[in-house]
Design brief:
Helix content is 33%, strand content 23%. The protein has 479 residues and is an alpha+beta fold.
Length: 479
């Protein structure tokens, strides 16, 4: 074996390669699957389990989700969906519960027909949470029975007692622990996060959980989410349920009266992708934009937001020109002009979306840009061409607000550029009395040299300040 000058072995052969099997890869590199091992990663584990329950709701089977935070450090998510399958999977010979919770890239969301649109796509969410849990208990109500199975850091087995510190014996297989009505179905996942993986100060933020639950209740009308915080003596319970969908979500995000709002729903493209967009312009300057794909928030946008913003800008410019709100000599409005004071919620539901990574913060499906763009263009055209008196008045106010924002931006930039030129002149050897012009095109600008300040006053009043500059010199010489 060769060594370098420092005496360090520098061989690199096949035996130096490490192959991580199953969930070992998750425990070795957790950041790849949950982003980090701080509070953000801990919250991401919770979202993975909640999103599985939400997917059952999107499929039409789940009406209620309970989220329980317990004083012993455990978290439980209970849904009344169909329940994880308990029969054996043919290839592995394992029950559906064990496959879902121990095998990466295993689940019912790979085009098998179980879910038309879902947030879980990679089949790693539940198994990642299991791998990073000191203990995880899974209970399934199905076929009139209660099925139960436990895991320790991803390994199936039996705990002789409560909590993660109880004696554990590895053992595969699903056990029946009781009976329920044949009409009762659902899944309960309870786990204790592994503190060997997560930082000591990592904790679940109840306000963030409330915000996520509230957001989900708007995005899935009719779904009830109940959050029980039992970690302290003053136990709290919050219930989230909304019928109004994303239009009501816009009202929540921007509670002021506003100057106009609209709702867009795709029709022609519904077989491939459902696009649902709510818009509301207010009198404020800040904008609030939220986007989702199959209920999964995409804070960094993606192709659906690219299509939305591009179509929004194009539609507004065409309407502003056709209505005469923008004059021929005025520049087109830009995205920032339209987004000023806008609160928007863009939701897309589709099968097999392509995200960038397991954290799913960016949508990468290229077709989404075109489809969302078509929906925005068509629905905005209808909105601005409406004959309804209220909608027509609101449309006019929105157009005037956007045009005004554009003029203000252009005027502010021109003033800023002028100040820069003045500062540059003052710091140079050029005369400070120069009355500069606004244009920077040297092919059309003119400089008038006049004698004295008195000539400067009359010439300045008569000039075109766009392209004519004036420079006074000396004045009358002393006798």
């Amino acid at each position: 074996m060769a060594t370098n000058e420092e005496g360090v072995q520098d061989s690199y052969t096949a035996k130096d390669l490490a192959v991580l099997e199953g969930l070992d890869a998750v425990r070795k590199r957790p950041g790849m699957y949950i982003g980090s091992t701080d509070s953000r990663g801990l919250m991401h584990c919770l979202w993975e389990i909640i999103d599985n329950a939400v997917d059952e709701s999107l499929a039409g089977y789940c009406k209620k989700i309970d989220i329980n935070l317990e004083s012993d450090g455990s978290v439980e998510v209970h849904d009344d969906g169909r329940g994880i399958p308990v029969d054996k999977e043919p290839k592995t010979g394992l029950t559906g519960v064990e496959v879902v919770l121990t095998k990466l890239h295993a689940g019912g969301k790979f085009g098998g027909g179980s879910y038309a649109a879902s947030g879980g796509l990679h089949g790693v969410g539940a198994s990642v949470v299991n791998a990073l849990a000191e203990r995880l208990d899974a209970e399934v109500d199905r076929n009139g029975k209660i099925y139960w199975m436990s895991f320790k850091r991803g390994v199936a087995g039996i705990f002789e007692g409560d909590g993660p510190k109880a004696t554990f014996t590895p053992a595969s297989g699903l056990r029946t622990i009781g009976k329920v009505s044949a009409k009762v179905t659902g899944t309960r996942i309870k786990w204790w996060s592994d503190r060997q993986i997560f930082l000591k100060d990592a904790e679940l933020d109840i306000e963030e959980i409330y915000a996520r639950a509230r957001q989900t209740s708007y995005l899935v009308p009719g779904l009830t989410l109940i959050v029980n915080d039992n970690r302290t003596k003053t136990k709290t319970t919050e219930t989230f349920y909304h019928k109004g969908g994303i239009s009501e979500y816009c009202e929540f995000l921007q509670p002021d009266q506003g100057i106009g709002q609209g709702h867009m729903v795709s029709t022609e493209v519904e077989r491939d992708m459902l696009v649902d967009i709510a818009l509301k312009w207010g009198n404020e300057f800040a904008n609030t934009n939220r986007s989702f794909v199959n209920i999964i928030a995409t804070p960094k946008g993606g192709t659906h937001m690219t299509g939305f913003e591009k179509a929004l800008t194009k539609a507004f410019n065409e309407t502003l020109r056709s209505t005469g709100t923008l004059k021929k000599n005025e520049a087109d409005v830009i995205k920032d002009d339209i987004l000023e004071g806008l609160t928007s919620v863009v939701t897309v539901r589709m099968s097999e979306p392509q995200f960038e990574g397991q954290t799913k913060e960016v949508l990468g499906t290229s077709a989404a840009a075109r489809i969302v763009g078509e929906v925005v263009a068509e629905e905005l055209k209808k909105f601005f061409a409406t004959t309804k008196r209220i909608d027509k008045a609101n449309g006019r106010l929105i157009l005037e607000k956007v045009a005004g924002a554009s003029r203000t931006r252009i005027s502010a930039r021109a003033h800023k550029d002028l100040q820069r030129r003045k500062n540059a002149l003052e710091s140079s050897s050029l005369p400070t009395k120069l009355s500069d012009c606004r244009s920077e095109d040297v092919n059309r600008t003119e400089l008038f040299i006049v004698e004295g300040d008195s000539a400067l006053g009359t010439t300045k009043a008569a000039r075109n300040s766009e392209f004519q500059a004036i420079l006074p010199i000396r004045g009358n010489l002393s006798n």
